[in-house]
Every structure is written in C-alpha cells, then in structure tokens.
Amino acid sequence: MGSETSVKLPPGFYFSPTDEELVLHFLYSKASLPYYPNIIPQLNLSQHHPWELYGKALSSGNQHYFFTEENENRSSENGYWKEIGVTKPITKLGIKKYLVFNLGEGTETSWVMEEYHISESESQGRPNFDESWSKWVLCKVYEKKMSQEGASCCYSDDDNESEVSWLDQVFMSLDDDDDLDQTTLH
C-alpha cells in the first residue's frame, strides 16, 4: 500500500490497540522489518488538517492512526501542532507525546494528537535496527469532545465554580490512565 491511502475496516471490526500494542506491533515493525504490516498508512502531516483525516488515515470511531516522519514539519496551511509538554513512558518500549492543533496565531482547537516514539534505549543492540528506526512516529489523532462550546468546560463543586480547560482535562485523564494501567497489570 502506498502512502496517502486509507484502510477501511470491515463492518463489525474496531481497531482499538493499547499504547504498548501500537509501539510493539506497529511502530517497531515499521522501523525494523523490510515488509511490515501496513494496515496503518503513511501521511505527510503538513498536508492535512486534523478534520481532513477521514478517509486518509486508518480510522476507528473518532480516532485516526497514521505514520509520519519524526522530524516532519508539524505546520499546515492554516495551523500547527504544538507539544503541550507531557511525555508519558510506555513501559520500556517507547514514549508518547501529546500535541494540540492550533489555528492561525495560536487559537487552540479541540484536536489532540498522541505521538508514539520508540525508546532510544530499546533500539540499542538490536540487530534489525539501523539509523532509520528513529525516523518514524505513529500518530493517533482525535477530537476531544466538549460539553460546551469553546475550549473550556465548567465544573461545579457545590457553591464554588471553577473553570477547567480541556487541556487540563487531558492532564487529569493521564492520572486516570495510570490507575487503569496498574489495575490491569494485577
């Protein structure tokens, strides 16, 4: 399959891999095997806005998966992906970085990208890895749903109302993900 083509899953199938599965079964395969499973297409990130990924990336529900080159320009015609400073380790396999799509001069949107990288320490000493292993990242893009219009959502604690941005919700959900990961390991 060439780049810029999508894979359509048959009716009844849902692509829902864990972080570990994305790194181990897809990103490692792309980096180390000459003929890797190519269910996830390659896209040039700078040529697509996040809402244009339907039909171009592997889509499952509201999540879109694709490979792109590590150092590729993260800017498109009308926006750019900005790292939010959160990096989450995926066991010893790799890391996951979070990015948010911004329009124009920095208007934050509700589009989030999780960018998966192979851990440098894991690649050392492996015979099938060469310098090209680090050129690929696997991306999962989705639109964060809001209960109100705009980039923030309000919660109320009794009489004390506080406003929490959707970005803060992402940070808080990381703690929830860690709790879930630990309970599934036991």
Automatic annotation (TrEMBL):
GO biological process, one term: regulation of DNA-templated transcription
Organism whose genome encodes this protein: Pisum sativum
A Pfam family that the UniProt record links to this protein: NAM
Listed name of the protein: NAC domain-containing protein
Record keyword Transcription regulation present: yes
Keyword match DNA-binding: yes
Swiss-Prot/TrEMBL keywords: DNA-binding, Nucleus, Transcription, Transcription regulation
Listed SUPFAM superfamilies: NAC domain (SSF101941)
